[in-house]
Specification:
Number of domains: 1
Radius of gyration: 19 Å
Structural class: mainly alpha
Helix content: over 70%
Number of strands: 0
Strand content: under 5%
Largest sheet: none
Length: about 90
């Protein structure tokens, strides 16, 4: 999430507080904050592991220079074009 998280959290907390009944603000914000951590820290690594694990295993057999080049290419494809690592064009 990186840069987006800084702008997302305060805005989403304010929106949750505004949309909640006064008696439920604390509960709703607590639920929101715990779900943020559950999905980001709990399910995120599982999801990434399933999608990226085959590509990582293939990279283990490569020379370090090849791995570095491939990692950079995958990062560019993901950031610039939204393609998953190792996806065919």
């Amino acid at each position: 999430m990186g840069i987006a998280e800084g702008a997302f959290c305060p805005t989403s907390f304010a929106t949750t507080a505004e949309a909640s009944k006064p008696s439920r603000i604390g509960f709703n914000q607590g639920l929101q904050q715990s779900m943020f951590a559950l999905f980001g820290l709990g399910f995120g690594p599982i999801w990434i592991g399933e999608d990226v694990a085959p590509q990582i295993k293939a990279m283990e057999a490569m020379a370090p220079a090849e791995r570095s080049t491939l990692s950079i290419r995958w990062a560019e494809d993901f950031v610039l074009h939204g393609k998953k690592p190792g996806a065919q064009a």
